[in-house]
Amino acid sequence: MTIDGRKNDHIDICLSERVRVSKDHWDEVHLVHQAIPSCDLEDIDLAVDFLGKELSAPLIISAMTGGSDQAQEYNRILARAAEEFGIGLGVGSQRAGLEKASLEGSYSVIKEFNVPLVLGNLGAPQFSDSRGKGISRYSLEDVARALQMINGDAICLHLNYLQEVVQPEGETHICGFLDNLGDLTKEVKVVAKETGAGISRKAALSLKEAGVAAIDVGGASGTSFSAVESYRDSGGSGRAKRIGTTYWDWGIPTPVSLKLANVGLPLIATGGLRNGQDVVKAISLGADIGGMAWPLLSAASKGFAELKREISFIIEEIRIGLFLTGCRSAADIVRPESVITGHTGEYLEFLSRY
């Protein structure tokens, strides 16, 4: 299948099928109410500085798409919203744009808008030592081209190996990645990004040592790309459907991953955030900003007005959550208090012993 066909498949499946993991771990994170707030609701300051860029709210539209005509229209709508609300925007994997010049426009369309923080996106396999296996390794010049394509402020390197092992076209090369990553971070600002299976403490420490500027934990709680790939197996051998179903719920819950990955680097919380209260929960667990993909893709599929309405509600919910937990700002050194219960709490408690 062509790259643009695969990109359209991902969009269509996410919008039409049930692809979330079975358990929503955010339901087991509970914010502690403060009966006496610290300031008036309208005085809550939502502005945050992330990677040297000021956002009007601690929110980023997470990497979703690019590489097809359909994706181009979504990126245009999403970028317009990011400009209007002063929030961040990440694009989907730019491999399609690098390898097929005709698809560059599906990413560069976002340059029509003044977005305060733009994150590019390339895959870890392209930075492994895999040339002998028929896979081209990207150079610093390729990274520079990806960033120029979107006027990007940093490049995300996505660690989507769960998806890769299920995908028929998957690339599972990792040897040499950390060494090559260390070389890259000396030249450009890199965000290490998981895509639904979470970042462990061990991985976070390795990424920090390699010099990444931030970590996007991309934990299990929202869209499962193992599930997405299982749906793409229609008419195939049945392998992706079988493996994708087996590993549907694989991964570290996002709330747990936020605690594990807190190794002194800026953190983006993605993985199942549904509303502004979930963003505040993520901040309470160590995140600097929260990222959303599916809720905003769903809204964007109904047009810009619906997307604008959804983001307005999310930002209002963030303000209210900070107010009710006694915070004065999204960047407050005193974070909201929260309690993790149930399976998610047990998971975290067990891991904290080691």
Provide a compact summary of the structure:
By secondary structure, this protein is an alpha/beta fold. The chain has helices at 3-16, 69-85, 95-99, 105-108, 140-150, 161-166, 177-185, 201-210, 225-231, 239-246, 254-260, 276-284, 294-300, 304-324, 342-351; strands at residues 29-31, 48-50, 53-55, 59-61, 88-90, 118-123, 154-159, 190-194, 214-216, 267-269, 289-292, 338-340.
Features:
single chain; 354 residues; alpha/beta; TIM Barrel; eight-stranded parallel β-barrel; two-stranded antiparallel sheet
Uncertain regions spanning at least 5 consecutive residues: none
- Structural class of the secondary elements? alpha/beta
Quickly count the domains.
1
- What is the first-to-last residue Cα distance? 44 Å
DSSP helix count?
15
User: What does the oligomeric state look like here?
Assistant: single chain
CATH superfamily: Aldolase class I
User: What's the CATH first level?
Assistant: Alpha Beta
Mean pLDDT across all amino acids: 92
Strand order of the largest sheet: 4-5-6-7-8-9-10-11
The CATH architecture is Alpha-Beta Barrel
Q: Biggest β-sheet: count, sense, barrel? A: 8 strands, parallel, barrel
